[in-house]
């Protein structure tokens, strides 16, 4: 029989070994980081210390958000009973026309307070899909437009939208109630609140840091639940008006944050398009949004939309334009796309009581600040190119028209596995920047314009020369 002392010593040895293993496991991430630092330095000497202009002054404060007005607008929208696209456009008390009337009334109030700068446009059209029946149906979008102050940039438009329509469980039933407080009364309220925030005289056109060079469009669309019909129409409308879309922000289901520990970050979905290097226009817009609003506010989701679903940014995204979707952190499917009812003790329905206006106000602020900064920025550079294959240096080149309000350009780089850009250097003039000792193989590169006011354009990734490796030559028969 083993003695009591030998047993204690054995247990002690086992405890020591277990502790050592535990310490090794804990230390593994740190060890991995140390191992990564053993890669060759690029460049071999210290990289340039770029001139970093601060972001524009006058950031929109959270205290400036009018949650009371957002709450009132959503209450009015819910009072319409349903806002299904197939419901009445003429009944002032029930149907989608009732919702449109409340939106137009609120935007007219905001336009009056803007000193006449904000222009309200009603866009009536017809469209059809498998969710409208065999014949085209009547639809209407509402646009509030704040013209840009720079003649060269006024035809660039930055867009924010929500959709006014709602739906019950049966998307073809215009009689059933569909309160639509969150989907998408919340997105409508965010778009309208952005119009208020950015059209105020103190926000635009007063002072060195307050002028929006590009045009802003605050949209409230219809037909989203019937097949993104209002969004397809808006895309066509911008082309008809001769606009270039600088960015499109879709806010859909942004009003609830029920999980404990909130407020949480809003999700921003961005698709990758057809580019293998995760640098689509949508992805660059998502990166710009996170950089402007901060990682504590924005959760980037590198996916075009929620799994198996879609929103009004999709037509713009498929057109190759910078377009993303804002959506709340964790959706509750009992309170969207549901006819109001109670089953087995569970309440279904998209009601006001499930909204979180603190979170929704944060989303409104995030959208408005992005629109503010992007519309103040110079035009993005063009013809960004990367050369330097089989050489020790990366060569980044780009072009840009003259702009007296531009301070220069930031040359950006990142590891191929890094989701975010970092500033490599600042250059005052367009042309070519040679990144001495930086491998073209190990990094991606981009360029963005920087205004004297500190506003940055969306980054433009460099296009690479793509040459397939040589293969066998087939002999002719």
Structural account:
By secondary structure, the protein is of the alpha/beta class. Helices cover 27% and strands 22% of the residues. It has an 8-stranded mixed sheet, sandwiched between helices. A 4-stranded mixed sheet has the order 15-12-11-18, with no helix packed on it. The chain has a 4-stranded antiparallel sheet with strand order 14-13-16-17, with no helix packed on it. It starts with a helix and ends in a 13-residue tail after the last strand. Residues 1-5 and 205-209 have low confidence and may be disordered.
**H/E series:** HHHEEEHEHEEHEHEEEHEEEEEEEE
Task: Going across the biggest sheet, name each strand in turn.
Answer: 1-2-4-3-5-8-6-7
Could you tell me the mean pLDDT?
91
Q: Give helix % range.
A: 25-40%
Q: Shape from CA axes?
A: globular
Unreliable sequence segments = 1-5, 205-209
Our measurement of the CA-to-CA distance between the termini, rounded to an integer number of angstroms, reads 87 Å
| Largest pleated sheet | 8 strands, mixed
Structural class: alpha/beta
| Number of E-state strands | 18
Number of helices: 8
- Tell me what portion of residues adopts beta-strand conformation: 15-25%
